Amino acid sequence: MSKYCFYTSCPSCENKTKYYWIHSGCGGDMKIWHDGDLECQSCNKIGFILDWKFDCGNHGKNIYLGPNPQKLINALASLSEVEMPLTLIFDILEKIRKRCGI
Predict the structure, then answer these.
(1) Is pTM, for the whole model, over 0.85?
(2) How far is residue 9's CA from residue 56's CA, in Å, rounded to a whole number?
């Protein structure tokens, strides 16, 4: 299955700037799988997107926040077909919706 660069706005706050996310533990690039897992391309740490924490710099220095489900949904929904296939975005959004009970 395919994985894509995790390129979104912050899934934890109101910051709308899109970032290529990196793993703070090792600096590796983050990729997102079709099932909503994020994986560090350097150390291979992997986990569902809702289980990670994010720091866009807007929360304060080195303050990592878990994703807000609605902000995460908005971030993923704002991606274009060029950034990630729409079918993949819809699949991930459905998994988030089910996991959060929304």
Answers:
(1) no
(2) 8
Using DSSP, state whether 24 is helix, strand or coil.
Answer: coil
Q: Which of 68, 64, 69 is nearest to 25 (CA)?
A: 64
Look at the alpha carbons of 71, 13, 6, 1 in this order and tell me if their dihedral is positive or negative: negative
Residue with tokens 């706050």: 13
Tally of domains in the chain: 1
Cα 34 to its chain centre, rounded Å, is: 12
Q: Which domain covers residue 67, as residue numbers?
A: 3-100
Sheet containing 46-48: order of strands: 3-5, 30-33, 37-40, 46-48
| Residue entry with tokens 């986990």 | 47
Nearest of 48, 31, 27 to residue 39 by alpha carbon:
31
Question: What residues does 65 pair with on adjacent strands?
Answer: 54
* Element containing residue 20 per DSSP (H, E): strand 19-20
pLDDT tens, 31-53? 998 888 999 999 999 999 999 99
